[in-house]
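ok so for the tutorial part 2 we go from a plain amino acid sequence to predicted structure tokens. step 1 is just haveing the sequence, like this:
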Amino acid sequence: MKRAATRVLLPLFALAATVAGFYVAPARDAVLAQRWGLTELNYAKAERALAALDVGREHRAAGPSAPAVTASLESGFFERPVRVALTSADGALIRYTLDGSIPTPRSAAYRVPVPLDRSVVLRFRSFMPGAPPGPTTTRTYIIGRDFGLPTVSMVVDPVLLWNKYSGIYANPEKRGRKWRRPAHVEYFADRSAAPIRFPAEVNIHGNWSRLVEPKKSFRLTYQPADLTGAGAGGVLKTAAAEEPRRAVILRACAMDLGYRLGEELFRVIYADAGGLVSPGRRVMVLLNGEAWGIYNLHQKIDRTYLTERFGPGEYEMISQERTPQPVVGSGELWHELMQFFSATDFRDDGAMRDAERRIDLDNFTRHQLFNIYAANLDWPHNNEYAFRKINGGDPRWRWISWDADATFHAERGLEHNTLAWATRDRLRHDLSYAGRMSDAEEFLSSTLILRKLLENPGYRRQFTARLNELMNTVFRPDVLRAQFDQIVAALEPVLEVDWQRWPRSKQEFAEGVQSVREFIAKRPAIVRRQV
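step 2 — the prediction. this is what the tokens look like for a chain of 531 residues:
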């Protein structure tokens, strides 16, 4: 049988796994193939994919596996080329790869120290006759590079990235648990820091961007107990004990010429003012040793986020994704809130007092005013979360901002009447996100709460006074310009690496920066006129 040209039928998956050093029970072949989308792979790719997934570990033959392998150099940054020696006990044969793939019996055999003259990931394991292969160890060697940013090295078997049947990068539209792939991750806080490393599952993240942008965003799901290395804090910190799994997002800075500068400015000023956001920071991502560009690393907003920030307990949370979608809980409490606002006459001050028992009015008003001033065109029907605690603590609904990409953009949003957009009770195609979508009936429920609150004269005065206060402080052009210039100054020195993989010109970036600066300078007069 010619392996390279043979299409693998389901009964051959056990054979492929055996060659890779595992035994997979035939009864599981169809399940595994269906789960991972491997039914059309040729023999060699099936072998590599099954080895990468380590799907046979629950079905290995009895007895000890081959011993672990150690490397003479830890992961890290190096000024010049290095040689890495690999050692293993009991005379086991060591095999290694340099492309991110899991070593198999076909991989290169280790004989002498491995010379490395470029940034690369080295993966290695041992093999012994009659025993399952040893554990795979992964190390990242970054040679002759200084990215000036915290660095995330993500290692995924290339089959699981690029294969047209099983690869997540080759199938960015695919979603769900079936399209999570195993990854090894190392996080370097700086070039002198020892890495934090952990196994994770990775999948493509995003909605519109996953289909149109070549630079994809990623979601990493992991068990905080698996984190090794000092200083495992910040965005990667250990989750609360009752939340054993955690997820972070690597958001690609690819949506516009400004590298999401408007979004970063929004997040900084909103958080400084007491608004709720997802913690995050800018990082450089390496994918299988290659510099993949600048990303923003954020904690995913989910049950774990709520537990870590507001304490253990029961929650309900919805996400606005054209319509409210339950994220935690059933969504019934949100439906009850909408019924209350829909049925209540807010000209009565008693209704306002009732509303204040149901929602955190300070949080809600801040959330509305920041998005209105920054002309968030992809909101409020998208890109926000609302949550409440069910048992114990503050039971009021509060709002969290997520994805403010469509803010602080002069060409699209400078003249936009976002207040009218956020309070409309009928379709306003003239105010919709230009070039992306038209208005829709299903969006209108997202304006209900603000629209109803503004029926109350007292709240209208409070709303206007709060806007004026912000325009005289946080939104003042000199204040915003100073904060924005700090963001730009931190980004400019590290752009070259991103441009090498995702070509853009300095002129294009300068135009993106100027767009934000123009918005900062001219927006106050426009908002005052609209209000």
